[in-house]
Structures are given as C-alpha cells and as structure tokens.
Amino acid sequence: MVDANTIASSHISAVPTEGNNIWSPARPVNPVGDPDWDRRVLSHPDYSFFHGTAWARVLQDTYGFTPLYLANGSAGQFQSLLPLMEVRSWLTGRRGVGLPFTDDSRPLCGGGGSFGKLFFGAVDLGKERGWRAVECRGGRQWLDDAPASLAFYGHQVELDADEDHLFARLESSVRRAIRKAENSGVTVAVSRGAPAMETFYRLQCQTRKKHGLPPQPLVFFQNIQRHILAGNLGIIVTASHQERPIAASVYFQLGERAIYKFGASDEKFQQLRAANLVMWEAIKWHARHGARTLHLGRTSLWNDGLRRFKLGWGAREERIEYVKYDLGAGRFVCDRDESTGWHTRIFQRMPIRLSRWLGAALYRHWA
After folding, report:
1. Is the pLDDT confidence value at 6 over 60?
2. Which residues pair with 95 in a beta bridge?
3. Which residues on neighbouring strands pair with residue 249, listed in sequence order?
4. What is the spatial distance between Cα 357 and Cα 115, in angstroms, rounded to a whole number?
5. Would 250 disulfide with which of 105, 120, 234, 262, CB 3.0-4.6 Å?
C-alpha cells in the first residue's frame, strides 16, 4: 500500500529556494476575484485552460463548489499549484476534486518534490474539513507506485503551420469528410452568443441521449457562455444544412492553448460529415487567433472509434491518469470509468425532459 505520508516524506525534502527567499508553504487560495490569477497561470509552462479563473467561476456559480486551490510560490509567481474544489454532497460525501468536469487539470509543478508538498497539504486539508477523498486529475507520475484511479487517452494537435500544411497533416479520410460536408452545402458559423449556446444545448441533449448519459443542466452552459465565451476565452462553432443546425462544438482558449470541450450533432444528418467541418473550422480559427495547440479532450480507453477520429487530425497521443486517495482507508483507490454501463441503457430510453431533470439533480453529486 502506498500512503500519503510515504509520498510526502520521499518528495518533500528539497523545497526550492530563490536567492535567500524560501518558497512559502502550500496554502489554500481562491482564484475567483484575483485579477492577477491568469497572468500567473500563464507564466507556468504546463498550464491549461482549466487552471484559469473562468473555469473556477463556472463551477462555483453552477454547483456551489468551493475553490480551495493549494499554491506555493513567491513574488507573485506560482512555484506549484494543485487546483481543488470542495464538493459537498449528501449523496457522495464531502471531498476535494481537482477539478470537477475537466479532462486534464494536472498539478502545476516543477517536479516530485513540489508535488509531494502540495499533495500532503491536500491530505491535511481534507482531514481538517472532513473529506472522504482527494482526487487529482494528473500528477500520478510523481506518486511512486500509486495506482491510477482512472486512465484515458489524450490527443493534442499542433497548430504551428499555415492552413495548407495543417490540412495536409490530416488523414485522407478526414480531408474527404471535410470536402463532402462543404460540397453538400453545409455551412459553419463561429459565435460566442447566448443564442448559439441554446442551439448547441438542444443538440447536446440529443447526443447525450444517444450515448445514454444525462446532459449537464442548462445553467452550466449558460455560465460557460457568461464567464468564458463572453470573456473572449472560447467559441461555439455551429454547422447548418439548409439553415437547420445539425452539429455544434464548444472550444476554450487561454493564451496559446485551446481545448475542444463539448461536441453535439443531429444523428439524422451524420452522413453529411458536419462534425468534421466544425472541427476543421475550429482548428483554423484557433490557429489564426494565437493558439499553438488544440487539445481534443480525454477519450475512454475502450472507445476505439473516438480514438481513431482524434488521431485522424494528426494529433499526438498521450495517456492521462488520475489518482484518488481515500482518507478514511489511508490508501490510494481505483474507480471505474462510468461512461458506459447498465445506466446508459436506461438513459437511452428515457425522454429528454426527464433526463435533463435528472442531470440537473445529479451532476453536483457526481462532480
């Protein structure tokens, strides 16, 4: 068994210094309301969109989660950062999750020593606040023999070329799908407005029903539009055929890094390959607006079809591993990927109106 004290003692011995200034110990901080937060996040080489303020605002406003990010550093800079939200639930218990509803929010660390300090601080904080567990969506490489609680594929597209070269990097089947959509009269539009989000949400409800999962509540996407899109930190790309919306996706961008977060489509028009045209438009848009990479989100290890789709965009594949420490048992534990199972068959048969109601009731507990 690998426990937190072993991790901490093996990694925390060398705390970096800068001149005569000793880095401060890890402490809980709240990014919401800190006007300098994103600048400090962007100064770290491993940042992602989810480390920024906007995502914290969405989670706090939608679900009432409490931001308790553990940070240490000096002179207004992060040496290391472990983003955590306190989830309080009568159904699943109180716990620290870093971060809910994210694909990859790995700790920002220079190495195992700084992460050991953060992780040990999170365990202590959890004991003080009565958490059942601490969940980190990244950082397992610094935890010796701790098992991954969950594992996924991640895919990232490099945007360091002009449009012709980006198109040439795509697999031939992807290029053909894009041309088919264009030749079939599919048009695309980029927007940040509330009407586009409402259109996306209608398609999202259909898509989640197909996959056997309830949709996140509408207010979640309304908060995304308010805190992220309206702040010029993301876009919605919508594809239409004969003025009917048939596919849409939501993308975020912070600094030079963009991520594909949500995708939805009308299955009746799948043969038009509108989703391919949406992704291609997003790639071009983000490349023109300063992004150097586009992350395509996480993919379940069993989902070969989605994995092949993402690899077709010339993406580099990686493995994303989460860790979960059970404070009561004093050990790391494993979870199960619940994107499929008996419950998916139930939600596939459920009316969308009921599925939406259940999603609004349950997601704050799932986190």
Report:
1. no
2. 87
3. 237, 263
4. 39
5. 262
Select the more confidently predicted residue: 8 or 327: 327
Residue 337 class from Cβ within 10 Å (0-12 exposed, 13-18 middle, 19+ buried)?
middle
Model pLDDT for residues 61-76, shown as the tens digit of each residue: 999 999 999 988 765 6
Cβ count near 199 (within 10 Å): 19
Instruction: Find tokens 């992602």 and name the residue.
Output: 48
Q: Could you tell me if 79 and 176 lie in one domain? A: no
Decide if pLDDT at 195 tops 80: yes
Measured between alpha carbons, how far is 147 from 143 in angstroms, rounded to an integer?
A: 9
- For the chain, the maximum distance between any two Cα atoms, rounded to a whole number of angstroms, is 67
pLDDT digits (tens, 9 = 90+) for 312-352: 999 999 999 999 999 999 999 999 988 888 899 999 999 99
135 with 201, same domain: the answer is no
Give me the number of domains the chain comprises.
2
Question: Three-class SS of residue 204?
Answer: helix
Domain co-membership, 9 together with 134:
yes
Taking Cα atoms as reference points, which of 248, 214, 204 lies closest to residue 348? Answer: 214
- Share the mean pLDDT of the chain: 91
The alpha-helical segments, DSSP class H, found in 22-143 are 37-42, 53-63, 112-129
pTM over 0.90: yes
| Residue 35 belongs to domain with CATH number | 3.40.630.30
Q: Please report the pLDDT score of residue 13 as a whole number.
A: 28
Question: Quick one: residue 33, left, alpha or beta (phi over 0 = left, psi -120 to 50 = alpha)?
Answer: left
SS3 140: helix
Query: Do residues 27 and 69 touch, judged by C-beta distance below 8 A?
Result: no
- CB neighbour list of residue 232: distance below 8 Å, 6 or more residues apart: 192
Q: How far apart are CA 95 and CA 84, in angstroms?
A: 9
